[in-house]
Specification:
546 residues; mainly alpha; 16 helices; globular
Length: 546
């Protein structure tokens, strides 16, 4: 006869939160880890920007020494592009794509986890340079010959190269995973013509990542060989070419703009119809325009190089390609506006930030057309006008959309609603602070203020524009403080969201909030582009009309 002592089983200790995060392969947890990590890097980049504005607020301010200033603008640009912009969008993609297509996870869950940790380790490696003698001071573009050993003898540039190299491998892994997942794991009935537009844009985005990152990786390896083994790829005195770096870098760098913006377009394409209570106007043209943008973006890289002395023929070709990309982008803007027209608009926080995105991105796009005109580019290249332009495109086009997406999908991720009153404070402070920061830079640039300068003399007419920009950074800081307070309050005591707080119609809203680890107990069957609408309205489903 057995005894009780012989059958007692000691339950296994529950893994700690840290252990769960380190070992998880759940796409939703990894998506949230991407968002948290990019938020951490965003705080660092914001602090760097604030210090730079503090220095530039007055002529001869003397708050920072020149070397520190160079390190700050290098790390700010590098962080915002590689460790904030892309990861936050990959994070949303990780969380949402499998849910939106009715899949239970990404195609390669372990590769997905590896991609995140490579990105995160790459970011930490780059920042470790602060503790290893000083951060890189070569700009986020790393132009030759500034990166040559003769001009950068410490290890900071090596940390910059290795950090981006490791992080880039993780990003390519994420791109491969997105393409495989979207192509092979869609729910029954979800043809490419029924994909949610966010998924369409993540698909094109992932293809761009796979195509655009290898040239950057090759350039970084060549630079390492130059610095460590005496190669001369970028050394003009030994037969190399400094322009080779620019071509390789910008072949990655300009598609990178669309890698950052396309998922933002996808978010807006999901949010605007829901809060207009209309199907999106011209689904097919939006999807086709996305493919067009992806294709054309691979052929415009040298418009960053008009001032290096290319031939007039090349200048004309790249200027024409840049003008051409405005066509599919304009189609998207037209479709969003047409969706708004005649809709029953609900101005909740996701919609407010979407409208902010539309206006800020439009302003950035218009100055982009100006810069595509070669004579204008020659006049303002490397001035603050360019700084203003790309912040309107990338900050206005990405961060406003990310904020819209955060307010829209936060209830799905957390099960709690964010406070709408604080959300409105967040929106108006950010809109005012953004325009106060970057609007005056147009005028400073037109008055001839060069970018990347450490200080400036009195009497050029730049003082007031720099003071306004610095004030704008303070207002933006207040906006993000309101956001963090809102998130903290919501997680502690926010109103329960329910499964579908916005009365939306894509599949992620058919799950619980937050979703179960396996996403769907039964894989749903899709018959139209709005499967949840079909379930809610069986008397008037969309599939009758598609």
């Amino acid at each position: 006869m057995s005894t009780l002592e012989s059958t007692n089983v000691v339950p296994a200790a529950r893994p700690s939160l840290f252990e769960q995060c380190v070992t998880t392969v759940d796409h939703k947890v990894l998506g949230i880890l991407y968002l948290l990590a990019s938020g951490l890097f965003f705080l660092a980049a914001g602090l760097e920007a604030a210090l730079m504005r503090w220095q530039l607020m007055q002529p001869h301010a003397g708050k920072l020494d020149p070397d520190t200033f160079n390190e700050l603008f290098t790390m700010h640009g590098t962080t915002m592009v590689f460790f904030v912009g892309m990861p936050v969008l990959v994070g949303f993609g990780n969380y949402l794509v499998p849910l939106m297509i009715g899949a239970r996870d990404m195609a390669f869950p372990r590769l997905n986890a590896l991609g995140f940790w490579l990105f995160f380790f790459g970011g930490l490696l780059t920042y470790y340079s602060f503790f290893a003698g000083g951060a890189p001071d070569i700009g986020w573009f790393g132009y030759a010959p500034l990166t040559a050993y003769a001009f950068s003898r410490d290890t900071s540039t090596d940390y910059w190269i290795l950090g981006l190299l490791v992080s880039g491998i993780g990003t390519v892994a994420a791109g491969i995973n997105f393409v495989t997942t979207i192509v092979t794991m869609r729910a029954p009935g979800m043809t490419l013509g029924k994909l949610p537009l966010f998924v369409w844009m993540m698909l094109v985005d992932a293809v761009l990542i796979i195509v655009a990152f290898p040239p950057l990786t090759a350039a970084q390896i060549m630079l390492l060989l130059d610095r460590s083994l005496g190669a001369h790829f970028f050394d003009t005195q030994e037969g190399g070419s400094a322009l080779l770096w620019q071509h390789l870098f910008w072949f990655f760098g300009h598609p990178e703009v669309y890698i950052l913006v396309l998922p933002a377009f996808g978010m807006i394409s999901e949010i605007v119809p829901v809060f207009s209570r209309k199907v999106i106007f011209g689904y097919e043209s939006v999807a086709a325009a996305t493919v067009g943008i992806g294709f054309i973006s691979l052929g415009v890289w040298a418009h960053h190089m008009f001032a290096v002395g290319m031939s007039s023929t090349l200048d004309a070709i790249f200027a024409g390609a840049t003008f051409l990309i405005a066509v599919p982008t304009g189609i998207k803007v037209f479709n969003w506006v047409a969706t708004l027209y005649g809709g029953k608009l609900r101005l909740d926080s996701p919609m407010l930030f979407s409208l902010g995105f539309l206006s800020m991105f439009l302003l950035g796009g218009l100055t982009g057309i100006m810069l595509a005109t070669v004579p204008i580019d020659w006049q303002v290249t490397d001035t603050y006008f360019v700084v203003a332009h790309f912040h309107y495109v990338l900050f206005g086009g990405t961060i406003f959309a990310v904020m819209a997406g955060l307010y829209y999908w936060f209830p799905k991720m957390s099960g709690r609603l964010l406070d709408e009153r604080l959300a409105r404070w967040n929106f108006w402070l950010l809109l005012a602070g953004f325009n106060l920061t970057f609007g005056p830079m147009h005028f400073a640039g037109l008055l001839g203020m060069p970018r990347r300068i450490y200080t400036y003399a009195e009497g050029n007419g730049w003082e007031v524009w720099n003071q306004l920009s610095t004030l704008g950074v303070i207002v933006q800081g207040a906006a993000f403080l309101v956001l963090f307070v809102n998130i903290g309050r919501s997680l502690r005591s926010g109103k329960p969201a329910g499964d579908d707080p916005w009365d939306a119609w894509t599949l992620e809203w058919a799950t619980a909030s937050p979703p179960a680890p396996y996403n769907f107990e039964v894989v749903p069957e899709v018959r139209s582009r709005r499967p949840l609408w079909d379930l809610k309205h069986p008397d008037d489903p969309d599939w009758r009309y598609e």
